Amino acid sequence: MSETKVAIPVAEKKRVKKVEQTQKVVISMDKSDAVVLQLNMNEAILLEWSIGSFRRLPPVVVEKLRPDNMRAYLITETKVDQRAARASKVEVLRNPLNPLTGYSESREVIRPRRGWHQCWANPGRDFDEKMRGPYKQVRLPTEAQKKSTYEPGDESGEIFQRLNGEGKVEAIALECPEHLFKAYLEWMSSQSGVRKATVKTDFFTAMENINRELPRDSRIKPIDDTGDLQD
């Protein structure tokens, strides 16, 4: 019995070959922006993002991603945002019998001061960037101040630092007026929304341009604002 042969169009052969040669690479938190862009330039590599190890990319990096990689990034980013929104509504139960939890939380406390936002900054770039803004270092009270009364902010002792097990500085206490911190959060929220809207608009436009050159059954389906595929 003779074997029946089916002719496969040349275009279909090229598409199958391209799919077989595509390598998927998961972008984890340890991959820098430069590495992401370098991988993005290789058309044989398809980038993927995992919710568990997701790191937000700067808008300038997202804008340089290929349409297929940008789509994968935006889907994962949307899912991460949705999970964070759900988690913020869930009350986290703590183990009252675990002394390590209390110790860890106590190390995060700086000291109460009404009207001021406080945080810890890591030595180096994190500390330098905050100090270039409205933040200032928190100091400990002197021995004389401890024996008398003083107001938070009047301390004139050593800089309040947190040390690790080797006695090296791992964090420095900083503070800034709370109204400035709230204004910063509002600005960041508005900027994030504008950048995300711009990136998504460019993404959908790129999808439309690509789909014009593809057969109907091979067209890429863009995502909507919920991260689901549009019909």
SSE inventory with pairings:
Elements: H1 10-21, E1 23-27, H2 33-40, E2 45-49, H3 59-62, H4 67-87, H5 99-108, E3 116-121, H6 125-131, E4 136-137, H7 143-147, E5 161-163, E6 169-177, H8 178-211
Parallel strand pairs: 1-2
Antiparallel strand pairs: 3-6, 4-6, 5-6
Order of helices and strands: HEHEHHHEHEHEEH
Number of separate structural domains: 2
The portion of residues assigned to helices is 40-55%
Task: Find the count of extended strands (DSSP E, 2+ residues).
Answer: 6
Distance between the termini: 45 Å
The fraction of residues in strands falls at 5-15%
- The average pLDDT value, as a whole number, equals 76
Rg value: 26 Å
Structural shape: elongated
List low-pLDDT spans.
1-6, 225-231
Features:
single chain, alpha+beta, disordered C terminus, four-stranded antiparallel sheet, elongated, 231 residues, disordered N terminus, two-stranded parallel sheet, 44% helix
Describe this protein's structure.
- The chain has helices at residues 10-21, 33-40, 59-62, 67-87, 99-108, 125-131, 143-147, 178-211; strands at 23-27, 45-49, 116-121, 136-137, 161-163, 169-177.
- With 231 residues, the protein is α+β, with helices and mostly antiparallel strands.
- It has two domains: 14-88 and 189-218, no CATH class; 116-178, no CATH class.
- Helix 4 packs antiparallel against helix 8 (178-211).
- The longest helix is centred in the C-terminal third of the chain and has 34 residues, at 178-211.
